[in-house]
Amino acid sequence: NAGVTQTPKFQVLKTGQSMTLQCAQDMNHNSMYWYRQDPGMGLRLIYYSASEGTTDKGEVPNGYNVSRLNKREFSLRLESAAPSQTSVYFCASRELEGGPYEQYFGPGTRLTVT
Amino acid sequence: EDQVTQSPEALRLQEGESSSLNCSYTVSGLRGLFWYRQDPGKGPEFLFTLYSAGEEKEKERLKATLTKKESFLHITAPKPEDSATYLCAAYGGATNKLIFGTGTLLAVQP
């Protein structure tokens, strides 16, 4: 099992460019999440998908969109990148929305917006 | 407001020198307290889940404990390979989402 995989590992964008971060899990989990991690701020939830076909906003959704393509895949799109979106992005998955509650994380995408 | 606070921010230990990391939480209706390990350039790796006060979990040199207000991650006789950032997270509260602390950066010197 690969667990949670993310592509790309690194990306540099110019302000105003768009890109999609890809995430896939092979654990047959129902719920998937996108977080960003910034120094001194901890992990913050951007969007989540409790189950296939549903998506909801998290704590910091502005400037992002998501698509739950199927049970395995959950993508995060930046339509017009801004320097404030420079961060490390993590995808996570969880077995069921109702529990157990532990989430499993991918290796991350390090994004720089200039 | 639901909150998770970790202390200290950074901790330097000598190999074999036992210590504890603290995680204080103010989360109503706690449904789980989690510990993760994060190595530089990697994603958080799940370590433990604690569900109720008094519960303890162990894995090698690590033991996690939970009270009604805080959790401790005890590290016994640490080795250099235990060096990492340890993250605490609580599930529950008003949003019923995982709330993370900012982590403790542990460095174990040989």
List strands and helices in order, with pairings:
The complex is a heterodimer of chains A (114) and B (110).
Chain A: E1 4-7, E2 10-13, E3 19-25, E4 31-38, E5 42-49, E6 56-57, E7 64-68, E8 74-78, E9 87-94, E10 104-105, E11 109-113
Parallel strand pairs in A: 2-11
Antiparallel strand pairs in A: 1-3, 3-8, 4-5, 4-9, 5-6, 7-8, 9-10, 9-11
Chain B: E1 3-7, E2 10-14, E3 19-26, E4 32-38, E5 45-50, E6 56-59, E7 62-66, E8 70-75, E9 84-92, E10 97-100, E11 104-109
Parallel strand pairs in B: 2-11
Antiparallel strand pairs in B: 1-3, 3-8, 4-5, 4-9, 6-7, 7-8, 9-10, 9-11
Structural notes for this entry:
The complex is a heterodimer of chains A (114) and B (110). Chain A has no helices and eleven strands. By secondary structure, chain A is mainly beta. Chain A is 0% helix and 51% strand. Chain A has strands spanning 4-7, 10-13, 19-25, 31-38, 42-49, 56-57, 64-68, 74-78, 87-94, 104-105, 109-113. In chain A, strands 2, 4, 5, 6, 9, 10 and 11 form a seven-stranded mixed beta sheet that branches. A four-stranded antiparallel beta sheet of chain A has the order 1-3-8-7, with no helix packed on it. The N and C termini of chain B lie far apart (41 Å). Chain B has strands at residues 3-7, 10-14, 19-26, 32-38, 45-50, 56-59, 62-66, 70-75, 84-92, 97-100, 104-109. Chain B is an all-beta fold. In chain B, strands 2, 4, 5, 9, 10 and 11 form a six-stranded mixed beta sheet that branches. Chain B has a five-stranded antiparallel beta sheet with strand order 1-3-8-7-6, with no helix packed on it. Chain B has no helices and eleven strands. In chain B, 0% of the residues lie in helices and 59% in strands. Chain B is globular and about 45 Å long. Chain A binds chain B through residues 4, 33, 40-45, 48, 58-59, 90, 99-108, and chain B through 4, 31-32, 34, 36, 41-46, 49, 87, 89, 91, 95, 97-98, 100-103.
